Amino acid sequence: MIRMTEPSKINSSQNVPDHQPAAGGIAARARASVGPKYLTGLNPEQRDAVETLDGPVLVLAGAGTGKTRVLTTRIAHILSQGRARPAEILSVTFTNKAAREMKHRLGQMLGQAVEGMPWLGTFHSIGGRILRTHAELAQLKSNFTVLDTDDQVRLLKQLLQADNIDDKRWPARMLAGLIDGWKNRGLTPSQVPPGEAAVFANGKGGKLYASYQERLKILNAADFGDLLLEDIRIFREHPDILRQYQQRFKFILVDEYQDTNVAQYLWLRLLSQAPSKPAAQAAIPERVEDSNPDSPSESDNTHRPEMTERAAIAAASAGPTKNICCVGDDDQSIYGWRGAEVDNILRFDHDFPGAKVIRLERNYRSTGHILAAASHLIAHNEGRLGKTLRTEDQDGEKVTVTGSWDSEEEARGIGEEIEQIQRQGEKLNEVAILVRASYQMREFEDRFVTLGLPYRVIGGPRFYERAEIRDALAYLRVINSPADDLAFERIVNVPKRGLGDATVQMLHDHARKRRIPLFEAARAVVETDELKPKARGSLRDVVTQFDRWRAQREVTAHTDLAQIVLDESGYTEMWQKDRSADAAGRLENLKELVRSMEEFENLQGFLEHISLVMDRDSGADEDAVSLMTLHSAKGLEFDNVFLPGWEEGLFPSQRTLDEQGRAGLEEERRLGHVGLTRARRRAKIYFATNRRIHGTWSTTIPSRFLDELPAANVEITESKGGSAWGGTGGYGASRFDDMEAFGSTYSTPGWQRAQANRNRGQANGQGRNGGGGRGGFEEEASNFSSTSSSGPDFGSFSSRRRGPMTIEGELVAKSTGTTSEFSLSDRVFHQKFGYGRVTKIDGNKLTIAFDKAGEKKVVDSFVQRA
DNA sequence: TCTTCTCTGCTTTTT
DNA sequence: GCAGAGAAGA
C-alpha cells in the first residue's frame, strides 16, 4: 500500500475523470512537466512522506527538516499520479502566510499559478467558505459579517450591561476569552459543562454564551470560532451535506498539526472519514477514550468534556479513514494557551487507526552546536513523540550565553554585536532578536534608534486591527449591510459629530423597542424632535450621507466609492489634521486599504474576505534587523539569532508556570527550542541580573533552561557592554557556577534572590567602577531618555550612573566628526517619536525635546524638518 | 459633549 | 512606565 506508482496513469490522461478545464490544466502540466523530477533531492524519509498516499499518515517534521517541501511535493505527486484533481484536495494551514507560501511553491513546482487549488487555505477561510454555502442552516445569510475580537467584546459588553452585570468585576474581555475557549473545544452553549459555565458572573456564563449566539444571528454575524463550530454542527445534523464534502475531498493535508485545537480536530475528523452510507457502518472498534500513558494531560480532569465529545464523534463517524496526511512537530507546539491540543498529535495513530508515522530528522538548517543545544534542551520534556535531529553540517560556532548587569546593558551589548556583524559584511536581514514578551522590545528599539541601526518589528497589531482600518471598514460595512449595528455604532461619532453616549443610548432604546437596526432607528429619530437640534442635524447628515453612498454604489467602482466615503465623511481630514507621530502612517494605511480592494470584484466580496485574508506586509525589502517574539518567529530562520531575557519569571514565564504548571513549563521549553532552531549559524543567549518590568527594577535569576543546555556546545562569554561582575562570567548558582558575587551552590530561587539583593550594592559598585572601559556616547544616550527616578531601591544606582557618565558621554560625543544640517530649535519630525524641537547638537547626534515622547537623543538622519 | 485628570494592571497571538 | 478606561470638570 505504500508505493502507488502505476506507470500507466502517468501518461494516460483518460484515467483522470477530468472535465474541468482549469483543473485539467494543472494536473496535466504536473504530469507532463514534473515527471519524477520533483522527487529528486528528497531524502528517503521525505520521499516516503510524499509517496505514501493511501491511508492516514503523520509526518513528524522537526525544525528545519523540509516540512513545507514535503507538503507541496506531495500535492504535486497526487496531481501527477492522477489520483485527484486540484479541487479534490483539501489542504489546510493556520496562517494566511503559510497558505500563500504553499501556493507560491506549488506554483513554482508546477510552473504556473495555482488557481485550481480552491481548497488550499486556512482552517478559518475554508471553514468560512463552507459556512457561507450553508449559512441558512446556521440561521445566517450567506453574506454574514465575520466579527473580530474587538467587535466581539463590544457586543458582549452590551449583553453584560443589559443583564446588569458589573463590567468591572466581570470584564467582557474575560467572557470573550471563555467563549473562545469553549468554541476552540467544539462546545456549543448547551454542551458547556455546567461547572465551567458557572464560573463567570455567578453562574450566568452559560446563559450569556447562549444569548451572545442569539445576538450574532440577529446581526447576521459570526465570530472566528463559529466558522468551524457551525460547520461541525451542520455536518452532524445533516449527514447528507457531510457526505458531499467527504466525497469531494479525496486527499486531506494538514500543516502544523500540533497547533490544532479540538474544534479543528473534530472538523478534520468528520471530513476525513470515507463517505459511508448512513445505515451500513463498518464500525471499526475504536476506543478513543482509552487512557494513553504517553499523553501527559490524559489524567487531567479538565479534558474530560471534550474527550467524551471526541469519543462521540469517533463513534458516530467510525468508518475507514481516508487519505489524510498531517504534518507537524510536537516539539514546536507553542500555542497550548490558546486552545491547541498537543494531544491531537500525540495520539494521532490512536485516532486514525493504521496510521503510518514518518519522522523527518535530518535538519538542513543549523550547525552542529546549535542543533545539539536545542536537542538537549528539548530532551528535558516528557510526553514527546521523540525525534533526534541530526545534521551533516559542521559544528560551527558554539551557542553563547552572556550575562549582563541589567537589561539596558543587554541591549547595548547586543547592539554592539550586531554592528560588528554588520561590519563583517553580513546582512541585517540575517539578524533577528527573539524576545519572550513584547515589552522587551522597547529597550532594543530605543537602542537601535540611538545607534541608527535599521530594524523592523514583526508581529504587533495586524493591519486590519488598526483603528483607522477598522473605522474605514465600519463605514463600508454600514453601506453594505444597514443592519450592522456594531459597525454603525463604531463610526457614528468618528470623526466627532457631537453624537455622544447620550445620543447612541437613545438610538439603542429606540431600536430595541421597535426591533429595528440602529441605522433605521436613526432615520426615524431624525424625523422627531427627541434630540437637540444640533445632534439631530448631525445625525440627519449621517443618514443622508449613507443613503447617498448606497445609491452611488450601483454606479461607482468599489475602490472609488471607498475613497469617496473616506473623504466625504471627513475621516481622511480627521487624520490630516492630527499632528501626532503616527497620523501619516495611518493615512498611508488607508491608502493601502483602498489599493487592496482592487483585488476583489466588488464591495461584498471584499468585506467577506477582508477579515480572513488581510495581512500586514512589513517592507521586507529593506536591510534591517528583525525584532519579534519567539512565538512569531516560528517558521522563520536567520543566520544570527539573539535570544535575550533568559531569566526565571520572564522565560520561563512565571505566569505560565503558575497557571499551567508542568505542562506550562514544557511549553516554555518548546519555545526555547523553537528560538534556538531558528538560527542557522549563530545563536546567542543573554540574561540580565536586573530588569525593569512595568517601570520598577527587579532582580532576577538566570533561567533554569540555561542549566539544561549541554556544556559541550555552549560558551559562556562576557557582556560586550562590560561585565556586571568585573569580569567574572557565570550567572547564579548553577553548574556553570564560577562566579564570585553569587559564589554558592545553593539553588533555591528564594535564596538566590536574597543573595542577589545582598550583593546588589557590591555588584553595583563593581559594575560602575570596575567595569571600566564602557560608556562613550552610547552609554550616555541610552540613559538620557530615562527621565524619572528608578525608585527608592535604585536611586543611588541611577544617579550615580547618570552623573559622571553624562560628562563622559559629552566628551565622546563632541569628538564625532560630521556636523549636522540642523540648527538649534529647529522643528523636526521623527518616525517613532513624532514632532519635536532640537535642543542640542553634537556632531550628527541631536537632542530633541519631543512633544509627546519627551527628550531623546537621536542620529540626525532619522529626523526630518517638520 | 468634549477634555483632562486619576487609577489600574499588565504574556505569548491567529483567524 | 505607560496605555486605556472611567470619572470629574469646561
Automatic annotation (TrEMBL):
Keywords: ATP-binding, DNA-binding, Helicase, Hydrolase, Isomerase, Nucleotide-binding. It comes from the Bacteria. Gene3D superfamilies: 1.10.10.160, P-loop containing nucleotide triphosphate hydrolases (3.40.50.300), PCRA, domain 4 (1.10.486.10). The keyword Hydrolase applies. Residues 368-635 form the UvrD-like helicase C-terminal domain. InterPro entries: DExx_box_DNA_helicase_dom_sf, DNA_helicase_UvrD-like_C, DNA_helicase_UvrD/REP, P-loop_NTPase, UvrD-like_ATP-bd. PANTHER family: ATP-DEPENDENT DNA HELICASE SRS2, UVRD / RECB / PCRA DNA HELICASE FAMILY MEMBER. Belongs to the helicase family. UvrD subfamily. This is DNA 3'-5' helicase. It comes from Bradyrhizobium rifense.
